[in-house]
Write a sequence for this structure.
């Protein structure tokens, strides 16, 4: 060694030599973290309710609609 100094004689660096406050950095990271997406259920429930309503409406219309053929089959049968 040129000066007679060993590398172990040098002052050691601190592991946390940052000028930033770690608590404030943790707070900033928490504020910048994106919020988890919450899936909404009301659109699914509304769509299912609308489909059920349409099915009941079409079933009611099929039952209450008059028949397409108005003449009786017995009257048109050959004699």
């Amino acid at each position: 060694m040129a000066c007679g100094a060993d590398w172990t004689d040098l002052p050691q660096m601190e592991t946390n030599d940052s000028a930033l406050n770690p608590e404030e950095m943790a707070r900033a990271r928490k504020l910048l973290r994106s919020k988890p997406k919450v899936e909404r259920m009301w659109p699914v429930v509304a769509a299912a309710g609308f489909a059920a309503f349409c099915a009941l409406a079409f079933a009611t219309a099929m039952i209450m609609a008059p028949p397409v053929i108005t003449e009786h089959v017995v009257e048109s049968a050959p004699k």
